[in-house]
Amino acid sequence: MTLLPATPPANAANPAFHAVVSKGEWLAARQLLLAREKELTAHRDLVSAERRRLPWLRVDKPYVFDGPTGKETLAGLFEGRSQLVVYHFMFGPGWKEGCPSCSFLSDHIDGALPHLAARDITLAVVSHAPQPDLAAFHRRMGWRFKWVSSFGNDFNHDYHVSFTPEELASGKFDYNYRMNEVEGGGMQELHGVSVFYQDGQGNIFHTYSSYARGADMLVGAYSYMDLTPKGRDEGGLPFPMAWVRHHDKYDASTNSPDTHSADKAVHSAPATQSAPACCHAEAGAA
């Protein structure tokens, strides 16, 4: 039994592309897909175990960040726990607001914080913009997570999410574990997630970093979308996340009955944005 065509139709939610079958036939198809889903779950568990077995890098550089209440070291970001997850949020010096796609991901953070803390994990967000700019946007978005600035230190550069004009002028930059060609002048800020461990002797280790679509797993809304007939509905857009807005910028037309497609959503966007359209538009997005 074939579940999906080799090439998905332009509108997979169109009933014309789906057989309407008896309950028994539907159940047989669903059970076949369930077997594939179980294979995917088992494979994900294996990959997660491999991730935990990666070797570690000792962090020797004394990074100091500007936090909402003053200076904070990398060790201080752990808040007494042994594990730290850092989300590298695209918000550069001089930007009026943060990246829309990073904001989409960050909308999922606050509810997870007490559950992470119960498992000995602290999550912090780090951006290159000065702290006053972060604080103003943090208030606007209504977030509660800790957000610190790496302005004035090498953290963003060392973890390959901020790039100097000289790097971009060279025509290549190091992102997502490969050298990428600079296109369209290049982007000085990109996104990612990094993980650190602190032992009982005060040593800090870098255990993992992921970039581009490696952060998809942090976007819970995508998991809901992937269950629906239209999925993420991002085909034909300039880049996959072109439809995303800051949560205070969606308007009534985006959710009206005749505006269900991502294509219409992207055309309802303002003509200019103060932060680049980002996250999955960048080099190494796959």
Mean pLDDT: 87
Tell me the strand percentage band. Answer: 15-25%
Residues in helix, %: 25-40%
Through-space gap between termini: 30 Å
Tell me the major beta sheet: 6 strands, mixed
Helix segment tally: 9
Unreliable sequence segments: 1-8, 256-277, 280-286
Based on helices, strands and strand pairing, what is the structural class? alpha+beta
Rg result: 21 Å
What is the β-strand count?
10
What order do the strands of the largest sheet run in, or round the barrel if closed?
A: 1-10-9-4-5-6
Order of helices and strands: HEEEHEHHEHEHHEEEEHH
Spatial shape = globular
Features:
single chain, 286 residues, alpha+beta, six-stranded mixed beta sheet, two-stranded antiparallel ribbon, 10 strands
